[in-house]
Amino acid sequence: MIALLLGAGLPDDDDVEGQKEDGFWRVIYGFPYFCQALTLIMFLTCYPEDSITYSISTGNDKDALSLIKRVYAESENAEEVLKGLKGKSQKGASGVTLSQACCEKRYKNATWVAFALCFF
User: Fold this and answer.
1) Residue 42 near residue 51, CB atoms below 8 Å
2) Cα dist. 115→13, 57, 90, 101, 110 in Å?
3) How far is residue 112's CA from residue 103's CA, in Å, rounded to a whole number?
4) In whole angstroms, what is the distance from residue 28 CA to residue 7 CA?
5) Distance between CA 49 and CA 43 in Å, rounded?
């Protein structure tokens, strides 16, 4: 919808001279860059903290606990939630980590075939 509105400001297709003199194409070209810059600024200012799983994976349990207390209900025990998330974040339901799936001989071929099937 925004592209249609921005395109309305361009001169007609048969007006070659108007297209040469008009600089509105710069607005259309720069609009996505403006939107991305605005998104980046909003993410950096509105969401300054890391995710809970990132804090757990880097070993920063203190920040993870403070985030858990902010996100989860007060009736939840933050320590138990942290312990449960630690168990789930390192291994999936199969008990195999990503590094094991990609590098160990018994999982490697199946993992890379699955990755290839996702993209091709």
Assistant:
1) no
2) 45, 23, 20, 11, 9
3) 10
4) 8
5) 10
Three-state DSSP class for residue 14: coil
Token pair belonging to 44: 């950096």
Q: Which two tokens stand for residue 106?
A: 């018994």
Residue 102 · residue 111 · CB < 8 Å? yes
**How does pLDDT run across 21-57, given as a tens digit for each residue?**
888 878 888 889 999 999 999 988 887 778 888 888 8
Query: What count of Cα atoms within 13 Å lies in the side-chain half-sphere of residue 72?
Result: 17
Closest to 26 measured CA to CA, from 5, 10, 12: 10
Q: Is the pTM above the cut of 0.85? A: no
Q: What residue has token string 């008009």? A: 22
Mean pLDDT across the chain, nearest whole number? Answer: 83
CA 30 – CA 34 distance, rounded (Å): 6
